[in-house]
Amino acid sequence: MTALFALATSLLWGLADFGGGLLTRRIPALTVVVVSQLLAVLVLGAVVLATGAWTEAGPQLWYAVGAGVVGPAAMLAFYKALALGPMGVVSPLGSLGVVVPVSVGLLVGDRPGLLQFAGIGVAILGVVLAGGPELRGAPVQRQAVLLTLVAAFGFGSVMALIAEASTTVTGLFLALFVQRVTNVLVGGGALYVSVRRGGRALPEGGPQVVRAALPALAFVGLADVAANGTYAIAAQQGPVAVAAVLASLYPVVTALAARGLLKERLRAIQAAGAGLALVGTVLLATG
Fold first, then answer.
1. Which of 4, 58, 164, 240 has the greatest number of CB atoms lying within 10 Å of its CB?
2. How does pLDDT run across 84-130, given as a tens digit for each residue?
């Protein structure tokens, strides 16, 4: 079950990143973050009311608040990096945030077997190579790398925090709702400050561009929420280190989506990375 939920997480995150990266090429990154998360809040609010999840409020929700504070900063850095550099550079480096939850898991007592340790190393290497990393080039590329590393640490921290925010399914709904409300408040504040400093909240085409993109924005927000939920379940079902690494295979999904929809060609290093990621997945699932 750990492998199943973690792999579902990688699929959802990969598709959300692909959609978010495309949207930030037309709409300011902060607006993408705020609107997508606001739409997720509306859906999660209805789920919390329908399931009575608010009755499970407790001190553990502070983990969800923490994830909600870190998340928007990480997403903003990541979306800006996607807008600056090719997805093949940004997405695999973003997965390096897996180091945070893996380290936490090891500190709290996770002891993967030898095959799983090998799988962790092979999978992480495969994920990085799957994007066909291009670390040499113009200053814009270096800026994209820096932003991506900031985002990676943030994503890893969110993974570690959300895994501690609940112990039941209904409690998880409430934790995700609290996380997204915090996302909107933090992201909305950042958007307000940006506008006051001369930044744009709307794209050049005006509000109609945002309205036309609402279905895509809703997909990005809900896919990200669902990914957080499946990851939390995976981390509770088995070793955190295994769940975190399998969940971090999402750059492979992003690369394949770019190949299928944008006709981006996979280079030899990307194909090799995808193969290594698959080998690492098998080792983790069978170790």
1. 240
2. 766 666 666 776 777 788 777 777 776 667 777 787 788 777 777 76
The residues near 144 (Cβ < 8 Å, ≥ 6 apart) are 81, 84, 85, 89, 90
Return the sign of the alpha-carbon dihedral for residues 18, 72, 79, 201: positive
CA angle 45, 13, 270 (to 5 degrees): 175
Task: Evaluate the CA torsion angle 270, 275, 281, 287 in order and state its sign.
Answer: negative
Q: HSE, CB side, 13 Å, CA atoms: give it for residue 234.
A: 28
Which amino acid is located at 225 in the chain?
V
| Number of other CB atoms surrounding residue 61 within 10 Å | 20
Task: Provide the phi-psi class of 52: left if phi over 0, else alpha when psi is between -120 and 50, else beta.
Answer: left
Conformational region of residue 143, where left means phi above 0, alpha means psi within -120 to 50, and beta covers everything else? alpha
Cα–Cα distance between 93 and 152 in angstroms, integer? 7
Among residues 153, 104, 127, the alpha carbon closest in space to that of 251 is found at 127
SS3 91: helix
Q: Of the candidates 230, 250, 245, 257, which has an alpha carbon nearest to the alpha carbon of residue 282?
A: 245
Q: Which of 177, 280, 160 is nearest to 225 (CA)?
A: 177
